[in-house]
Amino acid sequence: MTDREAILQRHSVRVYEDRRIDKDTVGLIEEKIKELNNEGNLNLQFIEDAGKTYNKLMNRAMGLGSAPSVIACVGKDTDDLDERVGYYGEKLVLYLQKLGLNTCWTGTFNRKNTGAEVAGDERLVICIAAGYGKDGGRPRKSKSAEQVTAGKKDRPKWFNDGVELALLAPTAINQQKFTIRLNDDDTVEFIDNGGVLSRVDLGIVKCHFEIGADKVEKEENR
Ligand SMILES: Cc1cc2nc3c(=O)[nH]c(=O)nc-3n(C[C@H](O)[C@H](O)[C@H](O)COP(=O)(O)O)c2cc1C
To answer: Mean pLDDT for each consecutive 10-residue tract of the chain (222 residues)?
Structure first.
């Protein structure tokens, strides 16, 4: 499965089967996390038993009352931490999708109950619920390409392909509060229009845009 196919297939899943992720798959996830932590200077942690991470009333109200496992997104508390968490966390989400797992980014969770290790100079930004979904989730409403783009009107195909996948990026409360601007010299700017956890959203959007705009990935991984 290519990254593009994983993006097309992925939806947030909030109801999971009551079974653990199998051992071999856990090994693969831990390997991938090591690689992404190195690349992104992060301390993402796979927590096999999510325990009571999702025991808040708000979690149940939003439809996610429990999950088998959780990825705690931790890193050194720098200005760009939220964005790096979004970018590399989404790479992990897509990898899990390829392994037949389902996920949901969760800004709402019980910080005391994750079991994550967070050093003095680090911050736990967000969690990602993971497991075998009862189903694969479903498509949701989306803004149009026109609503999230700006700049040059004569747009190359790679830009439109990037925007197509950026619109499939998960964002907090499906807010999609970002703008992707194509400058006259064909450079691209990602603009955060504010909102809850919008820097995490922006990192996720960048990850999706890159996959959509990258011809090499599309042609070689098929
Ligand atoms: C930064 C972020 C925070 C989120 N927080 C929650 C949450 O606390 N609870 C929840 O049920 N879903 C949460 N979501 C999932 C979004 O609601 C979901 O991604 C969005 O509605 C789009 O749907 P999709 O992921 O199926 O494309 C979050 C997503 C992101 C990116």
So the answer is: 97 96 97 98 97 92 92 98 98 98 97 96 98 97 98 96 98 98 97 98 98 69 43
Spatial CA neighbour of 196 closest among 94, 57, 82, 64:
82
Pocket test for ligand 1, best of 7, 9, 12, 16 (most atoms within 8 A of CB): 12
Q: Which of 96, 131, 166 is the last residue of a domain?
A: 131
Write the DSSP symbol of residue 16.
B
In a shared domain, residues 84 and 28? yes
- pTM of the complete model: 0.96
For ligand 1, atom 10, the nearest C-alpha belongs to 106
| CATH number, domain with residue 185 | 3.40.109
Q: Which domain covers residue 154, as residue numbers?
A: 145-220
Q: Are 17 and 99 in a shared domain?
A: yes
Largest CA distance in the chain: 52
